[in-house]
Amino acid sequence: LWRDAVWKESGVRMEKQQLGLWFYWNLTEHSLSNPSAAPARTIHLWPLLSLRNNGAGRSQAEFLSPFELFFPHNDKMRPLWPPFFALYRSDRNQGESRTSLLWDAVTWAHSERRRRSEFHLGPLLDVERAPGGGRVSLLHGLLGWERAKGGDLGRRQDRLGPEPRRVGDDFGRA
User: Fold this and answer.
1) pTM of the predicted model, to two decimals?
2) Which among 51, 56, 95, 140 could disulfide-bond with 123, CB atoms 3.0 to 4.6 Å apart, if both were Cys?
3) pLDDT at 173
4) Which residues does the chain have with pLDDT short of 50?
5) How many angstroms separate the CA atoms of 59 and 42, rounded?
6) CA atoms of 92 and 62, how far apart (whole Å)
7) Is 137 exposed, middle or buried (CB count within 10 Å of its CB: 0-12, 13-18, 19+)?
8) Strand, coil or helix: 2
């Protein structure tokens, strides 16, 4: 029922603890060439929780995670199926973060490098802030307010009303 395993693979020392076939799964990876490097760790408590930390600054967390354990190395499947089940998802990577709740109905993201942040409440509300200005839109762009820095001496330009059509909004038209 309980299993502990230690092995070496491609210059990495692997330590795995497992309960049953998939109920609890904890894998820790240590670099043999750089012992002072932070270890990578993956934890699954099926079907409730999946946690990943690559040891180099990227971490992921997912609450209600029935598929992650069964497809650990399938990068094509990972973005497709988990959003249907995840009540909470978080992805952080060196100053970049994205968090979502309730099947991606509420999302927020922040980028320190680009100094940009976003908040989305389904199709009802979008709020974006960046160094060049900000934008708020209601009902997926039916109404919007935009503030952009521009012109002489950094004057602000405000606009309120329907959002202008963007390039690529005309699907199927040449």
Assistant:
1) 0.71
2) 140
3) 38
4) 151-157, 165-174
5) 10
6) 12
7) buried
8) strand
